Amino acid sequence: MSDREARFEPLSGTERRAGPLARSHKGLRIDTNVLFDAFKLPDSSAIEPARRDWNDVLDAYRELPGWRIRRLAVLGEPGSGKSFSLQRIACDCARRALRDPGGADTAARRLGLWTRERDSLMAFIERQLGDLGRDLVALCDERGAILLLDGMNEIPPGQRRLKAQQLRKMAENERFAAIVVSCRERDFTADYGRPFDTLTLKPLSRLQIHRFLHRAYEYDEPNQGSERAEQRFWKIAGGEALRGVWTVWEAAGASFGQFWSAEEVPRENPNVYSKTSAEQDRIWHAARAEPRSLLRLAANPYLLTVMMALPTVPPNRAQLFDGFLTVLFERERKAREARHDGRSVPEPKAWQATLADLAGAMQRL
Q: Please, what CATH class does the domain formed by 2-201 belong to?
């Protein structure tokens, strides 16, 4: 994990705190919306939760011990970095435990492996921990257990409702020092919601993509990594012509952030406009407005990692997506087989034909 951390670009996210009733009345067996209606108050879902933006989601976790309710759900789109965020949290917890032997111990488990329909969550975790499982109850009694549960959305669909009840019950058990889960944002329904605060991962910015590539290539190749990172970034961003435009902007005194955030070519602070040609301005505008830019795909950490690992970046999105589909299909196939659900894996050609039909239908909307 240490080598992966060295390559890692911190992910930003938006934290939202759970509503006050979900936090302070966890054991109240009354629908909170009924209470709101009875006292003619706004619907609880309409109340905007407290919001805070983080440049590094790990910092949000580090503040968790100061929160009254230490329950956090890390949410995001597929490939947004949810699992790796939990791995970073696990490493951070392990380092704290080494510094403070009396601190909390961490147990990290993948919920996608919780496939036995009648299996309790506690039994699943204890079994997954092996010999350490026998100490889990004692750790809970000492409020010394931190649970990291990855992939709530990977629980088999037919089991989710009942298993969501077990997850909620465990989350409401105050003997755990903290519980952090991850889930695809669209799968994080009301069944899972209470009493978790949420931390939603954001897509990578252009600057983060640039730093990500430099971290990765320079770690592997200290001497040539920087230039390889630049070549791969500009290949994804729009080609050598766009890189040439950036060279002019840089010479004029513009920052890399300005190059990607400016609405128009700057005429002051600095005056880039006087240094560029009309063709260069056209290239810059086209790159900034291009809806099919590979940079939009690279904002997803998983897809960016795939682009980085390829010998060359395919010349068009069609070829790139064809490769992505193959990689993602294999990843999902292996995940389902690991949770003894291999029979649900479709035949690849039939799966791709269904995706093509869906894409066509969406285009016609």
A: alpha beta
